[in-house]
Amino acid sequence: MDKTREFFAKSKMDFDKLKTEIPDTLQGFGGLFQKVMKDGALGVKEKELIALGIGVAMHCPPCIRSHVQKCLDHGATRQQILEAASVAVVMAGGPGYVHLPLVLETLDDLANGGSDKK
């Protein structure tokens, strides 16, 4: 089992448990996410590319994996995803740079059927 598939499986189990433990927190964040991450002046694909860039800049592996998947789901190409991650490196420097391999690993895993999330 690849790392991306393991991540999505564990994440689903963790958040299913959290839904019973702290439902208000999950509902609150989910509501915010749904309101912000819909088509507007920016399309969802562009918003997901921005979110990916922020995930790389903030050194957040779960954010990187989740937003690479969402970028792909909304029609971003491999090159668009890698370029968005590269912009994050410009803003974050070395700490963002060392997260580029995770973007690449996630893209490769997902290209090989590494996500059961859909």
Summarize the structure.
By secondary structure, the chain is mostly helical. The chain contains 7 helices and no strands. The two termini are 18 Å apart.
Describe the structure.
- The protein has 118 residues and is mainly alpha-helical.
- The chain is 77% helix and 0% strand.
- The model has no long low-confidence stretch (mean pLDDT 94).
Which CATH architecture would you pick?
Up-down Bundle
* Major sheet summary line: none
What is the gyration radius calculated from CA atoms? 14 Å
CATH-assigned fold name: AhpD-like
Strand content: under 5%
Counting structural domains, the number is 1
**How do the helices and strands follow one another from N- to C-terminus?**
HHHHHHH
Distance between the termini: 18 Å
Helix content: over 70%
Uncertain residue ranges: none
Mean pLDDT, to the nearest integer, reads: 94
Categorize the overall geometry: globular
Count of helical regions: 7
The CATH homologous superfamily corresponds to AhpD-like
Any idea of the CATH class? Mainly Alpha
Layout of SSEs?
Blueprint: H1 3-21, H2 23-36, H3 44-57, H4 61-73, H5 78-92, H6 94-97, H7 100-111
Helix pairs in contact: 1-2, 3-4, 3-5, 4-7, 5-7
Characteristics:
single chain; AhpD-like; 118 residues; 7 helices; mainly alpha; 77% helix
